[in-house]
Amino acid sequence: MTVTDARSAPAAAVAPPRTCTFDVADWTILARGWYAVARVEDVGAAPVAATLLDVPLVVYRAGSGIVVADDLCPHRGVPLTMGTGDGTGIACAYHGLRFGADGACVGIPAHPAAKIPERMHLRPYPAVVRYGLVWTCLDRSAVDAVPPMPGWDEDGFQRVTCPPFDVAAFAGRQVEGFLDVAHFGFVHPGTFGDPGNPEVPPYNPVVTADGFTVDYWSTVANYPHGAGLRAPDGYQWLRRFALHLPFTATLVVHFPDGGRLCIMNAATPVSARRTRMFAPIAKDFATDQPAGEIFDFNLRVFEEDRRIVEVQKPENLPLDPRIEVNIAADRSSVAYRRGLKARGLSHFFTA
Ligand code: FES
Ligand SMILES: [Fe+2]
């Protein structure tokens, strides 16, 4: 069997793993989504481990391509991430079977001349590289639906992809925090928030095919504290959010001098209680700023959010509006929960 045959073989129904921490019906819906599993720059010669929706994955480089597959050797079930790699493929730690482009088994050291059994090939998941990230979808029949990111493909923008950030909380809570506009002064006083400016002016999310967009205008500045920057008095900052269900959101901050800062919050549900957050950033000002400086500031902001998101109860996101109490400032949160509910997500989220 050729590699192409392996990839075009009929896809088995997507099934949750034995260790699934989600409601099974919800897992099946979530498995249709596209999620980031690694930064491209972190995928070198050695195989890289990732977990998506409780499914352990191996991510490895095979020449010009990147392969995402179950972290399980088809021979005797050893995790492939225990093995080694050389940039053209990986070798299993137990009997040295080699896997290359498209997950094809390309060598069995014990029987170098023997025909390779068809079932020895890995069955890779789709893999797409975008925004410095490797994206995948557990539904092998899925077409590419990696969410769009403003700024990233535009001329004149600096592009960086923050190191992954782990949060011991459910992805839905983490994403809702990213969309929240009432917490800046309380959670982020150490980075950009203004405790003296807590009021949230009215705003209205607009539903889209895969989520919603919202323009949020306020006088809360987005300058890092200590940078010595100040907006003209009364300047109305525009923050344009776009939510792409289930767990990706983008934010474009419009600065007084016309600059734009674009941040993607790509929350990967590792399990029902763990999230790995990836954050590509694109901006068209101070484009020679060292990447490390951008990472440091944003990691401090993420840390401030983590303190809150990791202690929220219930741990899941309540889609039943009777469970938590809403205020007008929660319009984005309400739109988010409605969107998740409209996708058929139910029991797990309301638990
Ligand atoms: S278990 Fe992987 S080569 Fe035998
Ligand atoms: Fe925040």
Present the secondary structure layout.
Layout: H1 3-8, H2 24-30, E1 35-39, E2 48-52, E3 55-62, E4 65-70, E5 84-85, E6 90-91, E7 98-99, E8 105-107, E9 127-130, E10 133-136, E11 158-161, E12 165-167, H3 171-179, H4 184-187, E13 206-208, E14 211-218, E15 237-244, E16 248-254, E17 260-269, E18 275-278, E19 280-283, H5 291-309, H6 331-342, H7 347-350
Antiparallel strand pairs: 1-10, 2-3, 3-4, 5-6, 6-7, 7-8, 9-10, 11-19, 12-18, 13-14, 14-15, 15-16, 16-17, 17-18, 17-19
The site of fe (ii) ion (FE2) has 5 residues, from loops.
Description:
The structure is a single chain. This protein has 7 helices and 19 strands. Strand 2 (48-52) and strand 3 (55-62) form a beta hairpin. Residues 1-12 have low confidence and may be disordered. The protein is α+β, with helices and mostly antiparallel strands and 351 residues long. Helix content is 17%, strand content 26%. It has helices at 3-8, 24-30, 171-179, 184-187, 291-309, 331-342, 347-350, and strands spanning 35-39, 48-52, 55-62, 65-70, 84-85, 90-91, 98-99, 105-107, 127-130, 133-136, 158-161, 165-167, 206-208, 211-218, 237-244, 248-254, 260-269, 275-278, 280-283. The radius of gyration is 22 Å and the shape is globular. The chain folds into 2 domains: 3-136, Rieske Iron-sulfur Protein (3-layer Sandwich), CATH 2.102.10; 158-350, Naphthalene 1,2-dioxygenase Alpha Subunit, Chain A, domain 1 (Alpha-Beta Complex). Strands 11, 12, 13, 14, 15, 16, 17, 18 and 19 form a 9-stranded antiparallel β-sheet that branches. Strands 5-6-7-8 form a 4-stranded antiparallel β-sheet, with no helix packed on it. It has a 3-stranded antiparallel β-sheet with strand order 1-10-9, with no helix packed on it. The longest helix is centred in the last third of the chain and has 19 residues, at 291-309. It binds FE2/S2 (inorganic) cluster (FES) and fe (ii) ion. Residues 73, 75-76, 78, 92, 94-95, 97 line the site of FE2/S2 (inorganic) cluster.
